[in-house]
Design brief:
The protein is built from 2 helices and no strands. Helix content is about 75%, strand content about 0%. It is elongated and about 50 Å long.
Length: about 70
């Protein structure tokens, strides 16, 4: 699970970098605005991932990813 979240972070950073480069190439400020939106999305994704890990630790007193399958209901 942690590798999936890390991969999402890397992809969001790459998308943000693409917005910055495109905005600089076309000399438009919209690339920076989109980058701020991408960073906001990445922060929300990181907080959801942290909340999942905290919930996993509270319920099972472990950070074993296989325990996620037991988190139904």
């Amino acid at each position: 699970m942690i590798f999936v979240l890390m991969s999402l972070e890397i992809m969001l950073n790459a998308a943000g970098l693409a917005f910055i480069v495109a905005g600089a190439g076309w000399q438009q400020p919209e690339g920076q605005v989109m980058f701020l939106l991408v960073i906001t999305l990445a922060a929300a994704e990181a907080s959801v991932g942290l909340a999942l890990l905290i919930q996993l630790h509270r319920r099972f007193k472990s950070l074993d990813i296989d325990a996620v399958s037991r988190m139904r209901g």
